[in-house]
């Protein structure tokens, strides 16, 4: 019962394959699970096989017309619309089945928490946060994050906090719950003037009746571990404390890393490990330990995502790894075979200091400006003083 940790996984999720040289390649998931096994992170852990989301699950988030379009797309070719058949969202065989399997995995992970069978659950294949109610976007066909949250709301959970640490704004989840005061969406992302999808300004606060339930912290290109954590700690713990969620849902995209080819933040694997540990602490402090962790973006397929998400799995499972641990020889050999000419790291660290200086109210950098703007926009709507520096 409670205090259990659940990992939702089976290899069928690798069929969500957008093909060719598409950045969202399923090899990143395969390499992550192989690395976690090789390092003993999954020792004694029974993996819970994923199962497809039902139409009822999907229709809480998506329109009937969109579901019909996804189902028919492989036969219809490029005439289907709804954001399908683009360079970002190419049509592929069994698209509905593959996408609904990922959505179902996130919903199943949520069910483990709501049922009391687990306090924490993780599905690294999830985190497809850009899909909208009626169209695909940003490599995402179905929005599994929103499907899981909507399922929890339909099954008695009254307050859910969603924290998105992907480099891209969590726009699809924000849109799904923009007028719902039961869901707090928080997104830290590269500034929308510099990165797709061009949304996620501090002034996006939630619709009338849900004022302050959308929180956005856009960060300047080049933000490193210290700046990212300074911004996170200056805003997120305070709004979570004020909201008092019953469950914390996190989208843990690995693409804020400095080597990610699609964005311009500058985090390290060490900084990402520190972030995951902070999320675990916040779940315990603010949500009674209830934590649903999902994957997300991440396009340094061989060097970054497997290490970052192995740290994520280890954090969820309380099997924390020493960052200095060497990568197992068998995993490195396999990774080298599939990576071609890409050099594979030899340990679980980038050898970066993940420390930071807490925000002190001074605005003397672009990160501090982001902190100031976010606090002044949203804190008063939660009864918080934007000038209070206690957290």
UniProtKB/TrEMBL annotation:
Methyltransferase keyword on record: no
Signal sequence region: none
Keyword Manganese applies: no
One Gene Ontology term from the biological process aspect of the record: acetoin catabolic process
InterPro entries in alphabetical order: AcuC, HDACs, His_deacetylse_dom, His_deacetylse_dom_sf, Ureohydrolase_dom_sf
Pathway: Ketone degradation; acetoin degradation
Keywords of the record: Acetoin catabolism
GO molecular function terms noted in the UniProt entry: histone deacetylase activity
SUPFAM superfamilies xrefs: Arginase/deacetylase
Location of the Histone deacetylase domain: 22-315
Similarity remark: Belongs to the histone deacetylase family.
Protein name as catalogued: Acetoin utilization protein AcuC
Organism in which the protein naturally occurs: Halopolyspora algeriensis
